[in-house]
Each structure stands twice: as C-alpha cells, then as structure tokens.
Design brief:
With about 425 residues, this protein is of the alpha/beta class. It is built from 19 helices and 14 strands.
Length: about 425
C-alpha cells in the first residue's frame, strides 16, 4: 500500500488534475507494456491489482504488446496518443525520447520517495540526463549461462573457469551427442548477448562502451577478433542448428528436454524453469577470456517512463511511487525473474537469483545490453549482421565491412 508520505507529497498534483480534467478522467491510468510473456504478464497484473487495492478510485488499463512490437510502435504512441506510462529502457534508448521531449521528467517522484539513496549509483546514472530523472527503475537482471548439471556430469565436465575450459567442455558435449549451446535468435536480440560478452571479456568494458558510443570502429582489430572467435563457435556446430528460426522461449525448451546443455540468457528465464528441472539447472558467469579485460556483466535495468503527453500524470506518478516501495518491487522482481533495484527490497528465495545478486554486488561495471547501449539504427544493423554470422560464419570480413559502413552512416545522420 502506498505510504502516507507519498500520498501527501503527491496529493496536490492529484487535486490539480481532478480540477483541471474532471473526476472521470483523473480516475484513469493507462499503461503500455512489452511484458508479453505469460509469466511477465501475470507478475505485472499482480502489481496492478495491488495498486488498485491501495487506490480503488483509479481504474487501470494495461495494454500489452509483444517485445519487438513495442519497440516499433512506441514512437507513434508518444507522438499521437500517449499512454500515461510506458515500459522502456534506460541509457541510450531512453535518450531517444528524452531529447525530443517525448518523455517527461519524474524527478519529483524520485525526491518524494528518496530514491537516490536507495539504489546503486550505476542504476541512478542510467536514468539521469541533464540533471533530471526520466523513469522509475523497478528491476534489473543479469545475463549468464544456465546449464544442465546432470548433462555436464554425464559428459564428464564441470563449470569452466576460463575460455579454454569452456571450449573443451563444448567439444566434449558435442562428442556426447548434445548441442552444447541452445540459442533462439528469431527476434535478433538474443544473439547480441554473445557479442556483448565476447567483446567485454576480450577487449574490456571501457573499450566496449567506447564501441557502443561510436568512439571505436567496428573495423578495429579488437572487434574483428571478437567476431572471428564467435564464428569459430558457429563453425564447430556448438549452437542450435537454424537458431534464427526459434524464439528464445523455444530454445530454452531444448535445454529443458535434454537436447542442449546450456544457454546464455538473462534471468527472465527463471520463472519458466519447470518444477522438475529446478534442481538440475545451475548458473555460471561468462568465462574469462582475457584476464586483463576486467570484470563487467550485462545487467539491463527495466523501468516505466511517463510520456510528456500523458493525460493522467498525477495517477502515473502515484503508480511510479508505488513501484518504489519494497514490497511491490520485491514481488514484481520475483515474478519477472529479476533482481529489485532497491537495496532494502527482498531478493526472491531462488538459489540462482541469490547467486547472481551476490556476484553483482562485487561488479563495478554493468552494460545495458547491445540494443540499449547504442543508438537504434546501429543496434538494428548490428543485430542483422550477428544473424548473418550465425547463417554463414565464413563472412566475418564482409560483416566487419558492413558494420563499419553502418557506423559511418549512423554518425552522419545522428
């Protein structure tokens, strides 16, 4: 339930909204989300139900769109018929709507709940621009390898400590008749996690961030080395055949049914792990390739932002404040298979999430994932080329050339 302090701080805004727009409109709240997976929809609906129980006078409408559908449609919503809140991403993707003033700042909500002191500095940094905050973070999730403990044991291998051991494990799994790595890249973004990690583990976080911001060319020796190493994995047949034909949800089933041994994916996979698989699925971090690269992880943050054209801004701010409370955020993060951003919130009693939370507490650098860390035009070009590599790993030189040309075109047009 929303605290009395939050209600008091936002009460004047609600009153003004009621006076200016009429009681019927002020009692509405429209939220557009890309949380379309069944477990995600259920988790968010439970949050909405808890909010409406605390605010029975507010009628909440939730419009659910496919993950990729939302990315395509959001600009049109914001310009023509904006909802009151929209599910979106911090970092560069956030700025694409902040700079043209399609998002409204919510710094007053942050101040009212004292959020700055309750979350990690890295989280705050990703949502702050020009001295203002532009969304309410509610969770983040780590990427890494989920693997079948029983299949590893059957193949006589253990969790790899470095890249040489990882390659050896893949070879032994293939010899045992298994596809070592499950991958479903139909929506293009899942494979981008491979590029992120190979780049961060090979060239380091600083170089990866510089690449994402156009300060290092894709036609550099470091990037070429990354793509060459990735192509080698494809050539050896370590990934799901025809991986671009499957969604990530399809690929996870290959691991659950014993056809594949492991999968690089975010913790949003956790709610979908079958109960009879719970004690068979383990987790390990992406192995070290270059010890000099330093520690970094893909740990994307999720948030809700308020469009500048939102009709029910007071109600939107009440919902954002609600998300900044321990209990709602803890329950939502658990339902989504994520970690709450609030330091005081409770991490779900799940061994995999607990393991990840302990690890991330020691990590100085979080990447936000390829399609969030770079501008949309370059992200689209990159993910298309990553699929090309999965189709034909002999095309590394052509892929490097295409990426470098896309980078120049992006710089010229942005």
């Amino acid at each position: 339930m929303a605290s009395r302090s939050i209600k008091a701080l936002l009460g004047l805004a609600v009153s003004a909204c009621l006076m200016g727009q009429g009681r019927a409109q002020a009692s509405d709240l429209v939220i557009n989300t890309g949380l379309s997976a069944p477990t995600d929809k259920a988790a968010f609906q439970a949050t909405v139900d808890a909010f409406t129980k605390a605010h029975p006078d507010i009628h909440v409408t939730v419009n659910v769109f496919g993950h990729e559908e939302e990315k395509t449609a959001i600009r049109n919503w914001l310009a023509t018929d904006p909802p009151d809140l929209v599910y979106w991403y911090p970092g560069v993707r956030m700025l694409t709507f902040v700079k043209p003033k399609l998002f409204a700042p919510v710094s007053d909500v942050w101040k009212s709940v004292g959020l700055e002191s309750k979350i990690a500095p890295g989280v705050s940094e990703q949502l702050t621009y020009d001295g203002q905050q532009w969304g309410m973070p509610y969770g983040y999730y780590m990427w890494g390898f989920y693997y079948r403990r029983d299949l590893f044991a059957k193949a006589g291998i253990s969790v790899p400590k470095n890249w040489a051991e990882f390659l050896s494990d893949c070879a032994k799994l293939k010899q045992a008749g298994l596809t070592p790595i499950a991958l479903g890249d139909q929506e293009k973004w899942p494979a981008a996690g491979w590029f992120d990690y190979l780049d961060m583990r090979t060239n380091g976080f600083a170089a990866h961030e510089a690449l994402m911001h156009g300060q290092i060319s894709y036609d550099s020796p470091g990037v070429r080395k990354v793509l060459t190493e990735w192509a080698s994995l494809v050539k050896h047949g370590y990934f799901t055949p025809n991986s671009t034909s499957y969604r990530w949800q399809d690929a996870q089933r290959f691991m659950f049914n014993g056809k594949s041994a492991m999968m690089l994916i975010g913790s949003f996979i956790i709610p979908g792990i079958p109960p009879d698989m719970a004690d068979k699925i383990g987790f390990f971090n992406f192995p070290v390739i270059n010890p000099q690269a330093g520690p970094a992880e893909d740990a994307p943050i999720d948030m809700f932002s308020m469009p500048s054209g939102a009709k029910n801004q007071a109600n939107a701010k009440l919902f954002l404040a609600f998300l900044a409370e321990d209990a709602p955020q803890s329950k939502l993060a658990e339902g989504l298979g994520e970690l709450p951003v609030l330091k005081s919130a409770t991490v779900a009693p799940n061994a995999l999430l607990q393991q990840q939370a302990a690890h991330l507490a020691k990590i100085p650098h979080f990447a936000q994932f390829f399609d969030r860390d770079t501008v949309p035009r370059m992200a689209d070009a990159g993910m298309q080329q990553f699929q090309r590599l999965l189709y034909d790993p002999s095309q590394v030189n052509a892929i490097v050339k295409t990426l470098a040309e896309a980078e120049k075109s992006t710089a010229a047009n942005d």
